[in-house]
User: Fold this.
Amino acid sequence: MAKTDCPKCGGTGWRTVAREAERGAAAPVLQAVRCECTATDRDARLLERARIPRRYEHCDFDNFDTRIYGGQPGGEAWDSSLEHALLVVQGFAREYPVGTDHGLLLIGPCGAGKTHLGVAAVKEIARRGHNAIFYDYRELLKQIQDSYNPERQATEMEVLEPVLTCGLLLLDDLGASKPSLWALETVGHILNMRYNEKRHTLITTNFLDREDAAPGGKPRAVPLPSGQAVRGAEDSLADRVGTRIRSRLYEMCRTVEIYSGDFRKEIRQAGRS
Assistant:
């Protein structure tokens, strides 16, 4: 929808531009084009169709910061991890769907930027006209559970249909809720269906693999340049989603590990210092 007070189009959404006159023509030809004021509305509709929460509407590749720790001793390694993740996800979005045989599994601690990168990919892919959708893991499970309530209008299949059939699914924060048999069966069904239909899935999770844990099974703590120690969750990813689903993820996704601190916490602490 055009802006009613736009000085260029007067609220019509269209403006005229002079096209270079063809040979022999007496004057340039006027051509109607869409006004720039309609772009904001198109982006808003795109974000709504992709189900991107307002909190993440700003997330793009251009504003993903890969130079957080470089000024501190040893910080180059952390920045390198962020830069590597950015390049991989950018490449995935750029080549989608022709040059991408697998989805992506972004693994890292809270606040490392996994959701930022995932949303940036969804937005870029959706802008090219592909069907890309964001779902929070816990929210999706709740919507499916709510569909069992006879007072609800949506059925289970109505909830699952866009999740199963969209070209790209961003499933954010996989494993965030405690696993139950029902949850594991539901997530396993979704991932198996998408894998069998060769549809791409982009997943983020805070849970590491067990081999990334310290001796004794507890996740290792890694010191940041700021002095903060980053420790993974007590459970591994397999603990949260089951070994069968973790095995399926190996087949359908390229794993991208992001070893960085909680950027949101770092910023808050910097603001108080």
About this structure: Residues 223 and 229 are 4 Å apart (CA to CA). Residues 75-95 form the longest helix (21 residues).
